[in-house]
Amino acid sequence: MKFPLFVLCCLPSLVLTAQQLPLFAQYRNASGLINPASLNAQYLLYEYDLNFSTSYRANWWEQRGTPRTVQASGEYVSDFGNNVEWLVGGTLVQDQAGPLGLSAGYLRLGTIVGKDPYYEALVIGFAAGFVQYDFNLSEINWLDPADPDVATLDEAISKPDVGLGIFYHRRLGGRKGTNNVYFGLSLPQVLNARYELARGNGVRAYLDRRRHYYFTGGWYHFFNQETFLEISSWAKYVRGAPVNVDFNARFQPGRVVWFGLGYNLNTILHLETGLNVVGLMGENTNLQLGFAFDQSFRALGYDLGGSFEFTLGLQFATR
Questions:
Q1: Do 8 and 144 contact (CB within 8 A), yes or no?
Q2: Which whole-number Å values give the CA distances from 169 to 44, 120, 192, 243, in the listed order?
Q3: pLDDT at 56
Q4: DSSP secondary structure string, 73-114?
Q5: Which residue numbers in the chain have pLDDT < 50?
Q6: pLDDT digits (tens, 9 = 90+) for 137-156
Q7: Which of 1, 85, 268, 313 has CB atoms 3.0–4.6 Å from 288's, for a disulfide?
Q8: Separation of alpha carbons 211 and 189, rounded Å
Q9: pLDDT tens for residues 158-167?
């Protein structure tokens, strides 16, 4: 991907802002990173209380230096038979976009309030961890490398990070209900600060870390135990960038396969499909494979092309 980086040479300082956290097409598989209070989709569907997942996303894969994201997560929902249960988990994420990189690790803890969390629960969640930002401007081919104002910065800075969230879901009509609704609000990056990464040759570089505000919501309609339709949305806001919203529909005609279609307000079409392999590693297990493709359809401006995402999940029902 080409940038007019020679413009930066004329500036006394360089500030990095805008959307700073990774984006996902199959965001159900990264729910713990989006909202530390979120219960994963496989628990809501089939009460798999132990869940592991990973994904790889390549944004605008035909361009050089565009974002590549890898994430891995795990979570467990307790069942002590009380009105209060616990959600524990962890997430690792690595995001690289040209000379800019982000690596992070989080531990999650959530309090689940509800007599039977599978049918109704209110979850208050907290995540804490560390984020490392890599700033490698020496990898850039500057227009005039001899210019004394050119920043040749190779810096890595690690800082603590905190996330907060609240999540609610309910099976309408009780145990025989055919509809389930869920909503979540989160601040996955609470700490708001400016960090000076480096200085040299009269150039200063800063990283403005800004709060992100996320909303997720969805509705399941169950035709039977193995067939459902899901409508979901993910809205994102960070100061300095426009509101970004995804709308998605997913249909599972049987336990083995599902299909999805969606749209992002940035004129992006989303397609996905996936497989469930039940019982491969034991009677109460599920292996999940997913693939998603996003294509931009901008009438004006530069079209960056398509993005793809692979996901892999493994779920267990331990009780």
A1: no
A2: 8, 6, 30, 25
A3: 94
A4: EEEEE---SSSEEEEEEEEEEEEEETTEEEEEEEEEEEEEES
A5: 1-19
A6: 666 666 666 665 555 567 77
A7: 313
A8: 5
A9: 889 999 999 9
H or E element, residue 166: strand 154-172
According to DSSP, residue 6 is labeled: G
Long-range contacts of 145-149 (CB under 8 A, 24+ apart): 147/9, 148/201, 148/202, 149/9, 149/10, 149/201, 149/202, 149/203
CA distance 20 to 18: 6
User: Do 172 and 224 meet the contact criterion of CB atoms below 8 Å apart?
Assistant: no
Copy the structure tokens of residue 284.
């109460």
Looking at residue 81, its amino acid is G
Residue-level pLDDT at 8: 34
pLDDT at 34: 93
Which residue bears the tokens 């509809």? 179
pTM for this one? 0.85
Q: How many CB atoms lie within 10 A of CB 30?
A: 27
pLDDT at res. 122: 97
**Is the alpha carbon torsion for 191, 107, 83, 47 positive or negative?**
positive
Torsion of CA 298, 299, 305, 306, to 10 degrees: 50
φ and ψ of 188, to 5 deg: -70, -15
C-alpha distance from residue 60 to each of 63, 69, 268, 319 (Å): 6, 12, 12, 42
Task: Answer whether 72's CB lies under 8 Å from 53's CB.
Answer: yes
Judging by DSSP bridges, how do beta strands 203-209 and 13-16 pair with one another? parallel
Round to whole Å and give the CA distance between 204 and 127: 32
